[in-house]
Fold this sequence. Notes:
The structure is a homodimer of 157-residue chains.
Chain A (H helix, E strand, L loop, with lengths): L1 E3 L2 E5 L5 E3 L20 H16 L5 E7 L8 E8 L5 E2 L15 E2 L1 H13 L36
Antiparallel strand pairs in A: 1-2, 2-3, 4-5, 6-7
Amino acid sequence: xxxxxxxxxxxxxxxxxxxNAGVDASNVPAGWVTVLPRDPxxxxxxxxxxxxxxxxxxxxxIVADTFGRPWREGFVNVALGVAGLQPLIDYRGRADQFGRPxxxxxxxxxDEIAAAAEIVMRKADRIPVAIVRGVAxxxxxxxxxxxxxxxxxxxxx
Amino acid sequence: xxxxxxxxxxxxxxxxxxxNAGVDASNVPAGWVTVLPRDPxxxxxxxxxxxxxxxxxxxxxIVADTFGRPWREGFVNVALGVAGLQPLIDYRGRADQFGRPxxxxxxxxxDEIAAAAEIVMRKADRIPVAIVRGVAxxxxxxxxxxxxxxxxxxxxx
Lengths: 157, 157
């Protein structure tokens, strides 16, 4: 997507656009790198199935990583894989406080939850999981792929 | 920045890159639009001063709005103005669990807090403020302008 000043922004096979295609040499032994999950939604579903079986209750799972963004400094956590959670909230058509329908508002709920979770996970403290409460109203079918913009609809590809 | 299919992505005088330069016809009476604050950091400082005086304790303030992003569906809340909070966490040089220094990890804390706050603010429920607890360790001087990437360092401008 872009290559400049020693930074490579690449699109992965999944459709994620991020630095070095998500390949990371942090938090692994010397000589090793980590790559993104082959199918993050399948990973989320497997974790969800195991957690639901172990806990005896329904949970949603987000598999996330920190990505940089154009125009803004700093990384934020984003949702790669999602299971058991609606990743987008579509407010289109909902009336605002003056009775006019909202026109284009779709909120990336799973990305906002992932961002919230990162605050307590830190980067080098070996905290692999954050538990998020209070979002059960959005439980239901969903996948991280819903958060990927179709390239044909993307003004930046 | 981009203009296509009836969508205009513009950079504001502040340096925010967003749809329609942040001009929004939602949640205002017919015939009106809202614009972004002239100086979001000054707005955040004013709110912080008033809140600290009224409450008798230190608080941080983030003034936020929902922005779209390239490559991904859905809006997320981002921090425009910041007062009393460190907006970025710089992990560079911190050792990972294998003792190797993290190389490029700066986390946009204020954007992650703004994203978390949006989850409870919704879009048309007239909730103007969310109270965030548990982030006092990052209290201190800071400004939203720190989250704006210098255009000379931006691969996407």
